[in-house]
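Narrative summary of target 7.
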Amino acid sequence: MTKLILSKVRILALLLCTAISVIAQDQFDTTVILISIDGMRADYLEKYSPPELTRMAAEGVRARWMTPAYPTKTFPNHYTIATGLYPGNHGLIENNMWDPQTGKTFSLSNRDAVQDPIWWGGEPIWVTAQKQGLIAGAFFFPGTETLIEGMRPKIWKAYDGKISNDERVDTALSWFDLPRSERPTMITLYFSDVDDAGHSFGPDSEETRAALLKVDSAIKRLNDGLKAKGVDQAASLIVTSDHGMAPYRVRDAIVLDNYFDPSDAKRIFWIGEFTQIFPKPGTEDNIYDAIRKRLPSTAKIYRRSKLPKRFHLANSKRLAPLIVVPQSGTVITNKERYTRAEREGSLDEVRGGHGYDNRDPLMRATFIAYGSKFKKGFTSKPFESVDVYNLMSKILGINAAPNDGRWSRIRKVLK
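Modeled conformation, tokenized:
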């Protein structure tokens, strides 16, 4: 009799715990957590086998790869994911820009420029959500510290790369403890470790593997925390990256100012994978002809109007009249930088770069989705980064702003 009573008590306790868990889950609204692992190439999942991300991909959804927008740079692609617009349409065409109409210059290190709304077009997901009555919270993501359409996420942080991954995760988890009326249901998290290591040591390095495992540990911390708070069934995790990474050596660089006179330009952005030249009046043809005649076959020079249409970039007024783009495996540089690398003995050091053609396999980005809204054990065909905005809008139950994405390419990731 005693055993029977104990057995019934255990069953009742189990049912009670289950009921409590269900009630706890019901207290939380559907929440999207958009996670960016900067520089995580699509094949890193197999190459470095990060355990938590591998588990999420196996139990949830992964795309074979996600095609980033061109140029395959950090700010343009993060904002493309956030808005569903190509860079030529949202305005962030590169990490370094000059606006001829205002004379203003943009760079990642210029905090005033980063927070200046003039650069940011379109409507990012956190604005879409808040315009329709939801709350957004951001622990970093390009655009979230800027007033766009007059608003930032209700909770936001000015970027500080010194803040640890654990602090970022724990802070985001703490938002689930807020009263329902203050709790964000659109959350962003950003991790730079993989991109930093890839740039410094190349994509095939031990340092890059270690950086990915470090981020993987932070994502496990997030999943464990969501489960401990009883919110895991309400949370839809979308893990993305902005681009891949390609190895190069400075010794193999194209020294572009050997081919033309830089004094003919009023401004040059010496970006290795995407060099922009703003000619002085009357010099464009001379610069173009001089470079075109001498440029190696591993690079091309384009007039703005002649950029391939698939780049969706040529209509931007911020784009320079002349653009020089190399193939992956090399970069554009100038004599001063090449000489400095030679003097430092770093010509043959392997480094990593991105910004190349978005069809290049080395530029492919990562997409993993995990949570009760998504299919289980499903591998999706490749789609584009412009498609993610529509997916987030659908999960949140809000109306998407006009965008360049196609719902038909990404809809199958949902149950």
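The chain has 14 helices and 19 strands.
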